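hey so i finaly got around to running the thing on MarR family winged helix-turn-helix transcriptional regulator from Methylophilus flavus. pasting the sequence first so u can double check i didnt mess up the copy paste, my clipboard has been acting weird all day
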Amino acid sequence: MQNSLAKEALKQFRIIFGAVRQHFREIESTCGISGSQLWLLNEIATHPELGVSRLAENLSIHQSTCSLLVEKLVKKQLVKKQRLTEDQRKVGLLVTPAGHATLARAPQPVDGILPQVLATMEIDALKNLKASLELVVSKLDSKTSSMGGHPMADL
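ok and heres what it spat out for the 3d tokens, dont ask me to read them lol
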């Protein structure tokens, strides 16, 4: 019985990972950027002039990971850095016209299918899911725990 349930749970993980990977491939082929870059681009467009620290917090990723993603978007000229008018010491981020064009042609949802699905779940179901996943994570190699601070598209 336990072996059968474990196999069924594994199938569910495969379905989830497969759907996420398929969505990321569609993003890359349509937009020419990774799913995590698209998510960050959308977050910058939604919240203009946010700094890297706040963006990292909004996306639940490590600040250094966010900085690297921002630099890739700047290099591709999809985002530009600009000193904020109220505090010249702070740098805000703005989406360029090319960045807006990328967002316009992006497959939906731009923040990824898994975050969107999780956001639609009932609170009790999310609590149960979180507890079950914590149990699974606790049985994995401790080296993998740092992966929680990276976007799924970059894993």
